[in-house]
Design goal:
Number of helices: 10
Shape: globular
Order of helices and strands: HHHEHHEHHEHEEHEH
Bound molecules: zinc ion
Strand content: 5-15%
Strand order of the largest sheet: 1-6-5-2
Largest sheet: 4 strands, parallel
């Protein structure tokens, strides 16, 4: 009890010097909220399902998926904040992703959770991978272990959304499995945005090549219509 009181006191003190802000609108919020109630209401209006995305796309190699929001407005601002290293929206979305995943894969069947990686250089420069922040929050909510050693991104100088659609699939080949075997594992693969599915398709195929029995994908946002991918300005396709 004393520890809880002490933690609350230090959180309040911290909030005095570094005020807690909503990642979606930057308004100041109480220290114990992840996002503000107004943005939470806006996000609820942006909820979509994995099926909404899947009905517009060909069959993918994964076993099922979870998606939360259309990639626009408050959700887009939240994702951009996570890319800048903010944790509030990441933790908020991670808990929702965990809930959504439960409808397609029971947590006890999940061997581990991993994420679409960033290059070693980018991780070193930023100090984090934004997809890892999302995966960590989902893993904590699901009570399942994280694996950081299954996939790697190799350096590429071109931003994926600058490429013609036909070349994007080939560009996704910069993602490869590591030498870690995944025999028999049931893996949840987390990404920030699902657009054409090329990145997650490649990562899923690589995990299967190393032995994974099942792969489920979990994306915070999705762009449902492929022709809107370019205007969405995402390089995580
Ligand atoms: Zn807000």
């Amino acid at each position: 009890m004393q520890n809880a009181a002490r933690r609350k006191a230090s959180a309040l003190l911290l909030d005095t010097f570094w005020p807690n802000r909503c990642d979606c609108c930057e308004e100041r919020i109480p220290y114990d909220l992840l996002i503000c109630p107004e943005c939470e209401a806006l996000l609820q209006a942006q909820r979509i399902t994995y099926t909404d995305w899947a009905t517009h796309h060909s069959t993918m190699p994964w076993d099922g998926g979870a998606v939360l929001f259309s990639y626009e407005k408050a959700a887009k601002t939240g994702i951009l904040a996570v890319k800048d290293g903010h944790r509030g929206f990441a933790e908020y979305a991670g808990v929702l992703l965990a809930e959504e995943l439960k409808s397609c894969c029971p947590p006890e069947q999940i061997s581990c959770i991993t994420w679409v990686p960033v290059t070693k250089r980018r991780k070193r420069q930023q100090g984090y991978a934004h997809t890892e922040l999302l995966a960590r929050a989902a893993a904590a909510a699901l009570g399942r272990p994280l694996r950081s050693d299954l996939l790697a991104e190799h350096a590429g100088k071109i931003r994926q959304h600058d490429l013609p659609a036909a070349e994007r699939k080939k560009y996704a080949e910069r993602f490869t499995a590591t030498d870690r075997r995944t025999d028999g594992l049931s893996i949840v693969l987390v990404d920030d945005i699902l657009t054409t599915g090329n990145t997650l398709r490649r990562c899923t195929e690589e995990l299967r090549r190393q032995g994974a029995a099942r792969v489920w994908i979990a994306a915070v946002c999705a762009t449902i219509h492929p022709d809107r991918a370019a205007s969405a300005g995402t390089d995580c396709l």
